[in-house]
Design goal:
The protein contains twelve helices and eight strands. It is α/β, with parallel strands linked by helices. The protein folds into two domains: 4-154 and 314-326, Rossmann fold (3-Layer(aba) Sandwich); 158-307, Rossmann fold (3-Layer(aba) Sandwich). It has a four-stranded parallel beta sheet, with helices on both faces. It has a four-stranded parallel beta sheet with strand order 6-5-7-8, with helices on both faces. Helix 4 (75-90) crosses helix 12 (315-326).
Length: 336
Amino acid sequence: MPDRGILLANLGSPDGCDAGSVRRYLDEFLMDPFVMDVAWPLRRLIVSAFILPTRPRRSAAAYRAIWRDEKPGSPLVHYTEALAARVRTLTNCPVAAGMRYGSPSLADAVAALGNADEILLVPLYPQHADSTRTTTINRVRELADVPLRVIPPFFREPPFIDAMAARIRATMDPDDHVLFSYHGLPERHLTKADPTGSHCLRSDACCETVSAAHDTCYRHQCRETTRALAAKLGLERYSTAFQSRLGRLPWLRPYTDEVLAELPGQGVRHLTVACPAFTADNLETLEEIGIRGRETFLEAGGVAFRLAPGLNDDPDWARAIARWCEDPPGTPSSRL
């Protein structure tokens, strides 16, 4: 057996909660063609002229609301590194954590595994998207000079579903409506990733119609995660929405902020929100949902709002990853 190193990869975070740190992070993030998939000159113009002049200051205030006093201040980085430490104790392999953007970088993580004959990459994104999985895998392939194996998406793998369901069950009251909020994507990202070229978003029932497109369809995989979690929890009252949209082009609907404002008018007064597209808590879960989303729901007439924590460095989650490192899950998209 080769000497294997394990790389746990997450999306990333600014190095600090000041406007300068956020500006550097947003510039790196938004200039990735897998994130903003337009030609470089237009991408540079949009980012430099329309986003970076104002957004870093607003985002820095949001980061300050969730920033930890200890280092690393970023919850996402803290939990990813803590998870790596747990996995390290459960395997006989070196384990490193790396971020696609920001630090510790993927280059730092690959360097930390420098003596490995093979790298097993664990992208900590349950569902496939080019703006998360593909960009991360491509970047590690550029950096690594040893064979690379990649854990496939785990959006309906029992260990992931079991661990996530346990977090939700421990948070919710039995009579709560559960909203599953996933990170949004521009609709064109789905159609661009569709290998058939004629399936995704071509009908209202495309996600329920068997197709090879499902191997790379983020919306289908999110819906499968919702189905699996609802079945595991025995839910009767639940819904799915998509958060964190940017810009004016169509993104996946329904939008979480609009759903949170509408639910009280539909008779939902007690709500638990879970975010199964994120394995570690971050700005989108703690601030966008836990602070702003809570305010939206309560101001619209809601009575009780609960946010299920991410898997973070949960011991059961760490054990699941350690097992996958020996016996990878058989979810579609393993070819990616």
